[in-house]
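Subject: sequence -> structure tokens, single chain

Hey, anyone have a minute? Need the predicted structure for the following. Not urgent.
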Amino acid sequence: MRASLIALCLLAATPAAFAAPVSAQTAQTEAVTIDNARIDAALQQMIASDRAAGVSALVWKDGREVYFGSAGFADRAANRPMARDTIAQIYSMTKPVTGVALMQLWEAGKVRLDDPLANYLPEYASMRVYAGKDAAGQPRYVAAERPITVRDIMRHTAGFAYGAGPTPAHDAYVAAAPLALDIDLAEASRRLATVPLLYQPGKQWEYSIAVDVQAALVEKLSGQPFADYVRAHIFEPLKMRETAWRQPDTRLPRFAAMYEKREGRMVQQDAVASRVLNFQDHKLTPGGFGLASTLDDYQRFARMLLNGGELEGARILKSSTVKLMASDQLDPAVKERSWLPSKGHVGFGFDFAVRKGQPLTAEESRGATGEFFWDGMASTLFWVDPANELTAVLFVQTLPYDGTLHRDFRAAVYGPGYKGPPGD
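Reply:
Had a minute. Here:
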């Protein structure tokens, strides 16, 4: 069960009130009018097409809630509808939470973005890089040309793997099992440091285990267990009372079932296997996945980002720090970007994709230049759109990841012809 869960996890894949200068940079050119009937119809169509068993969505605009809706079932077998208080597994939407935690410590002066990672986690001092195979077919490894930096682990340019793959370095990752649930973050980091990098640091964008390294770094810098730090410094100040890695058993009746597309139809997964991460004890508290949350809880996190790091008197980050996280951090020389271009006309900041310009094709998801967003393996999604003073959260529990759900939801929020302000 543990091995299958880890394999599953590894398949995964603005602030309106920042300040006047930020708003000016994303000057609005098209009005966005929220059409509740249009969004309702999109959610209903997701169920009718059997791309989801249940779906719910929450949209804030101009400082108020402008839409909530749901369709289908949180648990078909139990005949339980998708509700506002349904708890869902958000997988990689855990990553922005981890990034906020690390940037809090950056603000406190405990870490520098361009320092070598090994200054804080010494196990990364002498990394090797896979360099193909020799004439005899044996793998070649060379020394890293420069150290992995803290900035690298924030923007997925460190060179780490994230599961099985075609190279001996991927094989070494699988053998090291750095995301085994029976080890802690410190051991996960030590195991990962024995695995050769896939490429030289800074040379490519490759989605990776780097955010779990961020979590290990938060523990090291703060002197607290990662989950305890996040709870005390993010969840409690934001009143995110139902977001956690380990959920109390009393919440099990509100937990959404997980569904997997098999042979063209949606099949409900075994309840025990799909809920092991949130309702059983284990040592690992991943930085890159594992949180379960509610729509309202995660919307509070999104609203904090939209408000420039503050919500209802709770200051989580400085507005300048949120702006830094939401700015493209990829050098134009970084041409190899794996599947990132499939997200649209985007770059990548710190644990967020960042929209750089208007959609380039009719098929690309709608959105506004300057927005930042991320999603989760079970097809959840959130984004923060400063130009329109808007945040949106979409909950669904569909495997494998289905980007058509995001395309349709965004088109319903913005209107299918929306292009937004110009960018690059």
